[in-house]
Amino acid sequence: MRALTIMLGLVLLPGHALAQFGNPAGWAPDSRTDAPGKPAPNQTNYQDRLFAQLVTAGGLAEVELGRLAAGKSTNDEVKAFADRMVGDHTDANAKLKAIADKSRMPLPDRLDPDHEKMRADLEKLDGARFDLEYMKAQVIDHQKTVQLLVWEIGLGQDAEVQQFAKETLPKVLEHLEMARQIQAQLADDARVRPAGTK
């Protein structure tokens, strides 16, 4: 809960506090500046590039797994969540790609091996078991994404990438809370369901 409060505090900082984006300790040695302590536009560092690649990989997985869940689940809440993931992450992926293109940052365009395995494992499941495993994966992936967004806000160099992270964090926190609630409900349902039923 304390970490959530700190993250929300970062998001709600006044605009003037966020105008000084960029962390000089993490700047690339060849970064150009517009003014002392202010990198020129589209100047990325290692953190920006790693962030963009990892968040894009996660976003592609959210869309792919969301489509799988929307078609496979019979639970209305899970289906609605999956549809929301497809819509929200398609939008976020497009925004980040537009920013990355300006800075010539290469981004993945297909699932990484971990998410390929996750999809293959989920495709083997049905019914309540599928729903629970999908939602467990959503909680874990959204926790990772929250950490990446906070990391970029603190250590990134490119102001547009940092701004993307700042604007995306509240939505990802909302997704995480939704996923936790649905997972908890599914786990409760599984505990009261008689053994041997789906």
From TrEMBL:
What are the record keywords, sorted?
Answer: Signal
Which InterPro entries does the record cross-reference, listed alphabetically?
A: DUF4142, Ferritin-like
Task: Give a yes or no for keyword Kinase in this entry.
Answer: no
Region forming the signal peptide: 1-19
Question: Where on the tree of life does the source sit, at the highest rank?
Answer: Bacteria
Q: Does the keyword Nucleus apply?
A: no
A Pfam family that the UniProt record links to this protein: DUF4142
Q: Where is the DUF4142 domain?
A: 47-182
Q: What is this protein called?
A: DUF4142 domain-containing protein
UniProt organism field? Kumtagia ephedrae
